[in-house]
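Dear colleagues,

As part of the handover before I leave the project, I'm documenting each prediction I ran so the next person doesn't have to rerun anything. This entry is a single chain, and its sequence is reproduced below.
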Amino acid sequence: MTLSGHSIMETNHIDTYLKTLSLHRISQIYLQEAENAANTKLSYQDYLLRLLEQQVLSKIERSVNRKMQLAAFPQVKKLEEFDFSYQPKINEQLIRELASLTFLAEGKNILFIGAPGVGKTHLAISIGIKAIQARKRVLFFTADQLTQNLATAEVSGRLNSVLDQLGRIDLLIIDELGYLSLSKQTAKLFFQLISKRYERGSIIVTSNKPFEQWGEIFSDDVVAAAILDRLLHHSYPFLINGKSYRMKQITKPI
């Protein structure tokens, strides 16, 4: 579209105002959208609505992308990619209901318990992604990463601050609990975190150990019982006794 000297000056003013207001998406599209509006005889109001819709969608996309980075997922796993036919004992209907995120408002937890490779981490991440798409704050840790962070915070005198920060997250995902046993001190730090979030914020935990073996994880039956009591009080436990997806990939014919 050719602009006259007067139109160029107006465009420069518009660009300046949009930059001042940080309306970056509108600044990218308003000229083309104006031409489309003229060609389709779109009303001024509909043209403005179109620009604002694109700006809002752009803002949401940037927010979601930022939250995805902060969540620190080791990989992106979508619920739509999960093969429920390979794990028929999992309650697919309940998983899909949980993906609607009502459990977050209720401060309930989800626990995926099962052998390695059955899809625990996939399900945890996929629900975490659903939460981020709803613009919730999500953090993902392995149990080892999390307890190391808590131990470091305690040594540096920042434990209460770190616990407060983790307490404000909408959804905390703790993966691979049980692959490594915790010392009695880190087990107590883990208990403090669970207590901080109890009935306030949701947690998703994945573990390869059945509940009756959690005393081994925490090197203390009493601490393990206290942690389980808080996690299970308001929770959706899934005991997955299916086949390994990794073995499925290994045995797949070439």
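Residues 44-71 form the longest helix (28 residues). The mean pLDDT is 91.

All the best with the project,
I.
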